[in-house]
Amino acid sequence: MPVFFQHRINEDTRLGVWKIEENEAFFKGNVPVHREVTHPRKRIQHLAGRFLLQYLFPDFPYELIQLADTRKPFLPDERYHFSISHCGDFAAALVSRSRRVGVDVELTHDRVRTIRDKFLSVTEQTLFKVNDGEPDTRLLTLLWSAKETVFKWYGKGEVDFRRHILLSEMDETANTLRCDFGKEGSTLNVHYRVFDRLVLSWVV
To answer: 17 and 75: one domain?
Structure first.
């Protein structure tokens, strides 16, 4: 069973990353309800993410999942709060009985350098020393992932990554980033792990 990473955050909240090695039939046999996704690779990623929900909490009600206007999946009765992410051969899910959550998983790639001005403010680029030359691709990917995580945690869309999600105070011992989220005037701790080329971040 290819559980790549698993973390019990507290009694109500669990996180998992699955390395996709199975074929589509495996997931279809275990995930009774799924929406139509035409691209084969995206379809198996989608199925793996849904599979993780019930792997983390066996009584998770797949059949009740709905999609908001922002395309965020949710349960109308809020029995569980959840977030799903996938890239390459990995799917991640974060599920909580009691708290709003967000998760993101990314594979490092040099193209993140070309979009740094789109998601990082000048202040952030200076703070993290990614404003000139050839910045650390892994660090840039982490910063992008952290902002994606906050965006998913918020779940209501219309977020400007440069203005509304401001990162600071990276603690490499605790594996956290401070985030000041302007849409709600709140301060969040974004947790992260880096595994070779894979970057994982989450907010609870």
So the answer is: yes
> For residue range 68-88, what is the model confidence (pLDDT) as tens digits?
888 889 999 999 999 999 999
Give how many domains the chain has, as a whole number. 2
Are 58 and 131 in a shared domain? Answer: no
Assign 32 a pLDDT band (cuts: 50, 70, 90): low
Both tokens of residue 168? 């600071």
Distance CA 65, CA 77 (A): 10
Q: How far apart are CA 47 and CA 62, in angstroms?
A: 11
CATH number at residue 49: 3.90.470.20
Residue 49 structural domain: 3-99
What's the whole-model pTM score?
0.94
> What average pLDDT does this structure show over 158-183?
97
**Whether residues 17 and 74 fall in one domain:** yes
The pLDDT of 140-159, averaged and rounded, is: 96
